[in-house]
Design goal:
By secondary structure, the protein is an all-alpha fold. Helices cover 62% and strands 3% of the residues. A two-stranded parallel ribbon has the order 1-2. The two termini are 45 Å apart.
Length: 277
């Protein structure tokens, strides 16, 4: 590990990386893969770090292609944007902010939950920086939706959130609770120390298979992997939309992780070399 102070342009990053590789007497020609977070100083097509690394490797071995990967956990978080659930996300975040952003109102809500013996004693606060919190927020709001509705009636503010009494919207909300829960579970599996790319990608492949299977199930009005959605009588009304969302998410995962597929195949070839007679 090397720290870098001052400028962090592509040239500065390359000089630091190059110095480390040369000090460790490593061969550029054996470099197969580089993983980044996708920032411009890394991925710039002309002077970014990755372009400089590719040119250096090609200079030593013209046949060697470096595979550049985007951080696997960051990729997963970007994939969820294709679900097109802003019509659900925005009202839920607005609701949480409405209750939590005002100190007195927030305290009144906590007291209300205590008096009604609710399963939870507060709402979770969603931060756009910590995107994983969204799935947990959705789960908590869903579990407290009856108490929230009663509290809004008490404040005479129920009219500000008509979605809570809209059965069609509640179905989309339930669908979002389930799919975000599945994505959170995947993210947890991708975290932690001592994990190899191959192992992480194995979890991603399993998730892609689960998406395809769930899409077929939902098309047939089977909600085995969507327990929250299954609790609603109206769940079967929008199965085509749910299936399309899952298919879109599956395609996005296939696209975003296509480079990891190359790494996976390379590792398989190394593990099982082809013998020639």
């Amino acid at each position: 590990m090397e720290s870098l102070k001052g400028k962090t342009w592509g040239e500065d990053l390359y000089d630091q990386v190059s110095a480390v590789i040369e000090n460790m007497k490593l061969s550029w020609s054996k470099l197969i893969n580089v993983t980044t977070d996708g920032s411009p100083n890394l991925t710039g097509k002309n002077v970014g770090l990755l372009r400089r690394i590719q040119n250096k490797v090609k200079g030593e071995n013209p046949d060697q292609d470096v595979i550049f990967l985007h951080c696997i956990i960051h990729q997963e978080s970007l994939c969820k944007s294709v679900l097109q659930l802003n019509h659900v996300v925005n009202p839920v975040v607005k609701l949480v902010n409405f209750i939590r952003a005002r100190g007195l109102q927030h305290r009144q809500f906590i007291t209300f939950l205590e008096e009604t013996d609710a399963d939870h004693q507060d709402l979770l606060y969603h931060s756009r920086v910590r995107w994983l919190s969204l799935g947990k927020v959705f789960q908590r709001v869903w579990e407290l939706k009856e108490e929230i509705g009663a509290f809004l009636e008490l404040l005479r503010k129920a009219g500000k959130f008509p979605e809570l009494s809209n059965k069609s919207w509640l179905c989309y909300f339930a669908f979002a609770v389930d799919i975000f829960s599945h994505m959170n579970e995947l993210n947890v599996k991708l975290q932690g120390k001592d994990q190899l790319v191959h192992d992480m990608y194995t979890n991603v492949k399993a998730f892609k298979s689960k998406l395809a299977f769930s899409s077929r199930q939902i098309s047939n009005k089977l909600f085995t992997h969507f327990p929250t959605l299954a609790t609603l009588e109206e769940a079967g009304a929008n199965v085509k939309k749910y299936s399309e969302s899952l298919d879109a998410l599956h395609r996005e995962f296939c696209h975003c992780f296509s480079d990891f597929e190359k790494i996976d195949k390379s590792l398989q070839l190394v593990a099982c070399p082809v013998t020639r007679s």
